[in-house]
Each structure stands twice: as structure tokens, then as C-alpha cells.
Amino acid sequence: MKFFSKPQKKPFIIAGPCLAESFELMDEVAEKLVCLSESLNFDLIFKASFDKANRSSLSSGRGLGWEKTKDWFLHIKEKYQIPVTTDIHECHQAEEVAQVCDILQIPAFLCRQTDLIQAAARTGKMVHIKKGQFLSPSATKSLVEKIKESSPFDNGCILTERGYAFGYGDLVVDMRSFSLMAETGALVCFDLTHSLQKPASLGSQKESGGAREFAPLLARAAVASSYVDGLFLEVHPNPQKALSDKETQLDFIQAESLLKQVIPLWHQTRELKYEDHLFRQRETPSISHDSSTRECSFRTRNS
Prior knowledge:
32% helix, 9 helices, 8-stranded parallel beta barrel, disordered C terminus
């Protein structure tokens, strides 16, 4: 099922706690996000992970697994009448998760795994691919092609920027990536909270740090680019007690403040990208002078 297509009338927000820690947590976060989606007028997709398969350390919490949590996702979906999504890590999970979730997410570290992308695409569900921290934005074209060539369905695709590895233990966001990824025809999303990470930078490098203070700055900049169709953010009632990504998840007050800034900005800047063609390579104008009227006229040098 395709939930969104271009042109959009409002942005989509993929949000929820990083990890499906408990049903009570998921329900609390979902209720808050639904209220915000109604008051600020955006399309909400609820997200949580049932398994964090790429943790920095074996001692880091991974999650309770799909069998334990699948009913939680179904309950959230039915109670609030919203689409739900989660990430898959192995091919066999695609069909299982597609029975409940409306969108299947491919993790950034697995974004080039052909078998995994094909398995997700063949379910007929929309596929959401996180761009790897090692991948150029122009290389995402082949990821979209894998989806189209692997499925008889018009799945729809979301490509998400989540920062690029910058030396050891840091990420940067290249704002040019939004324009380049938009050229694929996919919906473009910005993963705000993961872009704030400082991978494996805490203590004995068994935990990832983060720079949450830059969340509003990066969100405003990305949305103002005019190419971002939606945002991805992780939200937790008490991030410091979260079992995953405690340094980058937003609490309810922070999430509301940020969305109140970027939703109006999304509407204000939405059409600006249509002026970008004026700055692309084209014939250079030269000036000719009419000596009788002393007026200048412009013509191209090749005319």
C-alpha cells in the first residue's frame, strides 16, 4: 500500500521509541504523537524496533524479538488507525513482518543487501531504505532500481539520509544529498536523531554518544532545502532511561517544540526547489550594446 505520493500536501513523520521496550511505552509514545499529528497536521507513521541487531556491544540491549512484540505493533495500528513500521535484518523476516507492518525498513548498514531489499519488495509493502553512512547519495539510484526490478507491485520507496561517517566517532549531514536522492523519484526523508549520533564514542566505545543540542538546527536546515518529504525521529518519555540511543532520542517537550518549528517551515519552503534549475549549467548570456539607443540587450553567446 502506498501512503504518500508526490506532490504532497503535508509532510510525513516517522516517529516512535528506538526500541520496543514494552507495550506501555509504545502506547504512551503513540498517543502523544497522534495528538501532535492532529494538531500540527502531518501524516504519522509509528516506528519502533523489535530487534537492534547492530548494537555496539554484546552487552547492549537488543530487544524482545518479533514474536513477543508483533501484537504490540498490531494494537497500535488498530487503536490509533495509523500505519506502523519496523526494520528487518534477515530475509525470512520480510513476510512475517509484512503481515502487520505497512512499511518495511532496511537498516543503513544493510542498505546494499540485495536479497534483503528483494524480500521486502516482494511483499508488496512500501520499502524504506536508510542510506548507509558509507554510501554517496547518487548511489541510492541503484537501491531504488532494485525495488522496482524485484517486485510486480508499485511498492513506493522512501530514501532516508542519516548522516555520513566523518572520521572516527562522528557523522555529518551533506545537505546536497536531499536533492540528489530526490532525482531517484523516491520520497526523501531525513533521519534527524540518528544523524546526531557519535558512534561507539562513550566509555570503552561500547555505547554511542550524541549531540542532541543540534537537533533543531539540522531539522530546520534539512526542511528548508525544499527536497525533504518527511522526517524520522525517535521519541521517548525519558531518554536517559531508554535502552537504546539515550543520547539522541527526544523527549515529548523537545519533539513538540521541534515539530512546531519544522511543519510550518515545510509548507513555506516547499516550492523553492523549482527555482534550482536556474542555477544549473546553461548557456552564458553576453551583453550587446545598441549605439543608437544606448540600451543593453541580452543574448546568448551561441545565438
